[in-house]
Design a protein that fits this description.
single chain; about 80 residues; mainly alpha; 2 helices; rod-shaped
Length: about 80
């Protein structure tokens, strides 16, 4: 029944309804989308920053091991 009623509406009226509904969905969607993104940004940046810090500290530890590694002195053997 609703399809039959929609077919009887003039095309310009359907375009106006679609434009209004599309605009309304866009504004509501973007408002909620922006809210979701702004709440996720601190969490995501914390994870990314933590990963970068971890990689940096790991590399520093590897270099420190190479630089400060002491050769093991061999014990004299008794002959």
């Amino acid at each position: 029944m609703s399809v039959h009623l929609l077919n009887q509406l003039p095309a310009h009226l359907l375009r106006q309804i679609n434009q209004h509904l599309g605009y309304r969905l866009f504004t509501v969607g973007t408002q909620k989308g922006v809210f979701s993104v702004t709440t996720l940004v601190p969490f995501i940046s914390g994870v990314v920053g933590g990963a970068i810090d971890t990689a940096y500290v790991y590399q520093c530890a590897q270099v420190a091991k190479q630089v400060f590694e002491r050769p093991v002195a061999e014990e004299p053997t008794s002959v």
